[in-house]
Every structure is written in C-alpha cells, then in structure tokens.
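A favour, since you know our structure tokens better than I do. Would you make up a two-line entry for one protein for me to read? Write everything out right here, beneath this request.
=====
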Amino acid sequence: MMNWPNMNEGSSAGGYEQWEYHTRFVEANATAQNDYLSQKYPGQKMPKFAVEAVLPELNQFGEQGWELIYMEPLNVGNHGDVGIGNSSVTVWTHTYFCVFKRRKRS
C-alpha cells in the first residue's frame, strides 16, 4: 500500500502552487473550421475530421490561461458516457477528451 503525503501539509501558506482543472470533449470538424484551416494551411485540402480543426478551440482555452495537459480520442455516447477501445475492432472517432489546468486564482 502506498503512503500518500498529507494533503494538508504545505497548504498555499506553505508555498505550494494550487491548480484548477477543466475537462472538455472537443470535436474535430474541418468543415466548421474551414476559414481558420485555409488561412493556417494555405493550399492544403484537409480531411473532414482533421485533428488540426480542434486548434481554434484549444487556442481559446490557452488565451484564458488553460494549459492542455492531456488529449485522447474517445467515443462519446448519447449520455456523456465514453467507450473504451477493443483491440480486435477499429472504431473511428473525431471527438477528443481534453484535460486542462491553470494556476488557481487567489
């Protein structure tokens, strides 16, 4: 069994940085981002679900101080549930699960 450090030790008064986190499903849809993609990648024809299509939304989070720390393609169900892969079947998706963090504001 792992011994975790006391979570109350070294609180903000002790100098530890504090973080807040945000999770979000981001969809790659090149059709919806056609203007952005044609300016960023002139002369290139992007596939309908090009991953580059998530950049405008990710950049908006960056402008708000959020840092992307994790991104993974996932299949999302109608109720917000997520599917996990099956190694014997290829399942296609254009939805990415993203985790962001930023310093907690005082």
The chain has a mean pLDDT of 86. Residues 66 and 77 are 26 Å apart (CA to CA).
